[in-house]
């Protein structure tokens, strides 16, 4: 969620469902990142809130997972990895070793090797942006208007007039 109060309200609903105390069982803080975890009596993490101070509206990217773009923000934490770890579908040891690696700016990272068989030492290039991928700018702020982007997508899908 964008608003910290919304995140707290959602966590409050889940605390009620799981009959957990209001105070988290664990808190962590590292720079602009803060995490709260609520565990049940068996020690299982049932609820997590990850807060990133100063982050705008978008999907958090970091540690080499994802490429920054509109609403894809490199803030040093990859939400996809964090969510997958919480649900137990990603190895936590791997992420711990990645977190300890020095941060390298996206524009200085080496391009990945091509996975195509028979191509040796070929480098892949990121796709070039085209006009179709450009987001409209909100006239007052010069920033993309989230509402307009969503409404345009709904109109394009025939779900809104």
Provide tags for this entry.
161 residues, alpha+beta, 2 domains, three-stranded antiparallel sheet, two-stranded parallel sheet, 4 helices, 26% helix, 16% strand
Arrangement of strands in the largest sheet? 1-2-3
Total beta strands: 5
Rg is: 20 Å
Q: How many strands, which pairing sense, and closed or not: the largest β-sheet?
A: 3 strands, antiparallel
Low-confidence stretches: 112-122
Q: How far is the N terminus from the C terminus? A: 27 Å
**Which descriptor suits the 3D outline?**
globular
Strand-residue fraction?
15-25%
Mean pLDDT: 74
What pattern of helices and strands is seen along the backbone?
HEEEEEHHH
**Based on helices, strands and strand pairing, what is the structural class?**
alpha+beta
How many structural domains? Answer: 2
Number of helices: 4
Q: Helicity level, as a percent range?
A: 25-40%
Give the helices and strands, then pairings:
Blueprint: H1 4-18, E1 26-30, E2 33-39, E3 45-52, E4 59-61, E5 72-74, H2 79-86, H3 92-99, H4 146-156
Parallel strand pairs: 4-5
Antiparallel strand pairs: 1-2, 2-3
How would you characterize the overall build of this protein?
By secondary structure, this protein is of the alpha+beta class. It has 2 domains: 124 residues, no CATH class; 34 residues, no CATH class. It contains 4 helices and 5 strands; from the N terminus they run αβββββααα.
């Amino acid at each position: 969620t964008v608003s910290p109060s919304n995140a707290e309200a959602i966590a409050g609903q889940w605390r009620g469902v799981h009959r957990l105390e209001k105070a988290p069982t664990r808190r962590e803080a590292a720079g602009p990142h803060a995490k709260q975890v609520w565990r049940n009596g068996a020690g299982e993490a049932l609820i997590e809130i990850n807060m990133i101070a100063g982050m705008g509206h978008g999907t958090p990217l970091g540690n080499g997972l994802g490429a920054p773009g509109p609403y894809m923000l490199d803030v040093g934490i990859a939400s996809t990895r964090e969510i997958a770890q919480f649900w137990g579908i990603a190895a936590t040891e791997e992420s711990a070793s990645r977190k300890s690696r020095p941060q390298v700016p996206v524009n200085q990272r080496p391009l990945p090797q091509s996975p195509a068989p028979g191509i040796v030492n070929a480098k892949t290039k990121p796709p070039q942006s085209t006009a179709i991928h450009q987001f409209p700018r909100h006239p007052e702020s010069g920033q993309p208007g989230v509402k307009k982007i969503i409404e345009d997508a709904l109109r394009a899908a025939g779900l809104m007039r």
